[in-house]
Design brief:
By secondary structure, the protein is mainly β. The protein has a single domain, classed as Metal Binding Protein, Guanine Nucleotide Exchange Factor, Chain A, CATH 2.170.150.70. The chain is built from 1 helix and 11 strands. A hairpin with a 5-residue loop joins strand 8 and strand 9.
Length: 133
């Protein structure tokens, strides 16, 4: 199975081979600011199965106040869409924004993290694993 992630203008494209090792819904305030939404959803793939197949990315690196390490976001310099990121604390994995796959059949998140920042009116699927960190 191959998944193709694209930015809004489709200039930056990332190919991911196989299925993600996990899909995570994050409610931290940093993800809320990055997405402009109530949460971010990331599919995590092993680094060796992810490749940029079109375009170039611009990067923004910041300290993750939640995990105490740096995270580098790769976004399209034309449209500004964040497509993927790398966390210093997990060098073997690449996070890819699930929305950039634009695939309604993509697997749903298997965990929801930073529940302390979840908006209280947002309901989660039954059985979803929940963590505060």
């Amino acid at each position: 199975m191959t998944h193709l992630a694209k930015c809004a203008c489709e200039r930056l494209q990332v190919r991911c081979q196989g299925e993600p090792s996990k899909v995570s819904m994050c409610h931290c305030l940093d993800c809320q600011r990055r997405t402009g939404s109530l949460f971010g959803i990331a599919a995590f793939f092993d680094r060796e199965v992810v490749s940029v197949v079109a375009g170039v990315s611009k990067t923004f690196t910041r300290d993750s106040s939640y995990v105490g390490s740096l995270v580098t976001f790769h976004f399209c310099p034309e449209c500004g869409s964040t497509v993927f990121w790398e966390r210093e604390s997990v060098p073997g994995l690449i996070g890819v924004a699930v929305g950039s796959f634009a695939d309604p059949s993509f697997p749903q998140p298997d965990q929801s993290v930073w529940m302390a920042h979840k908006h209280p009116w947002l309901s989660l699927p039954d059985g979803m694993r929940r963590r505060n960190a």
